[in-house]
Amino acid sequence: MIRAMYTAASGMSAQQANLDTVANNLANSSTAGFRKRHLQFEDMMYQNLVTPGSAASTATTSAGLQIGLGTRAVATEVVNTQGDFNQTGNQLDLAIGGSGFFQVTRPDGALAYTRSGNFHQNNQGQMMTANGELLTPTITIPSNATSVTISQYGIVSATLPGATASTQLGQIQLATFPNPGGLSSMGSNLLQQTSASGNAIVDAPGGNSGMGTLQQGALEGSNVDVVEEFVQMVMAQRAYESNSKVIHVADDMYQQVNGLVRA
Question: What is the pTM for the complete model shown?
Fold first, then answer.
């Protein structure tokens, strides 16, 4: 009965982490480029009352007698399904159709990756995120540019006063990973490379490495399905309640045993 209490408590703790993950997904359902996370569980160690395959077990069952000691949350995986596109009309807003991440350089010089393409210009004309991370490779837009065009292949061009043809300013590069689900979230719509994700593969949009293409004047929305998250929330709540009920029942049984001892 004591074992049942601790086992059920592990289930309650795991479902609390599950609900925390669902809550974060729902909170970011309107965050541009947000990638929802999925919590993964695993069973914990087992107590061998009769070792499988032992002489004692062959008389009853070849599987032996094992009692599980609960579950735990072991990992959250980034889910990289495509989000819906929202048209904004802003010439520096970009959405990626397909795989790939924008590369940005943080103030400490480290690279980070994002699907959020709501870019702006700094005081030097460089494209950057709302938090000041520079798009990499750097794209600098002249202050006197009358319009900016970004093709689906990432080629950035600007029309300058008095010019009959647009001037090419550079080409945006995207990055992908052998296992995008292994990227680590940093906040501020940024992800960082990990040993689980593997090394970044960099190519132009629409390149031979399978990169997606860009759409100017649009932003990719969050890939959170609100209905699905509500279903997950209800399931987590029911699992939590079930484990709580096990603790209550085990406590009642333990109380009855104590009553027998006193009797």
Answer: 0.81
The overall average pLDDT reported for the chain is 89
Whole-angstrom distance, CA of residue 117 vs CA of residue 109: 20
pLDDT digits (tens, 9 = 90+) for 211-255: 999 999 999 999 999 999 999 999 999 999 999 999 888 888 878
Q: Are 153 and 214 in contact (CB under 8 A)?
A: yes
Cβ 156 vs Cβ 168: under 8 Å: yes
- What is each CA distance from 101 to 29, 141, 176, 199, 250, in whole angstroms? 19, 21, 6, 13, 50
Residue 219: how many other CB atoms lie within 10 Å: 21
Give the count of alpha carbons within 13 A of 73, CB side only: 19
Residue 133 CA, chain-centre distance (Å), reads 20
Closest CA to 116 of 106, 129, 98: 129
Residue indicated by tokens 């209550």: 248
Helix, strand, coil fractions of the chain, as percent rounded to 5: 25, 30, 40
The H-or-E segment that residue 260 falls in is: helix 226-262
Type of residue at 24:
N
Angle at 139 between CA 199 and CA 162, to 5 degrees: 155
Q: Is 102 exposed, middle or buried (0-12, 13-18, 19+ CB in 10 A)?
A: buried
Q: Are strands 120-121 and 127-128 parallel, antiparallel or unpaired?
A: antiparallel
154 three-state secondary structure: coil
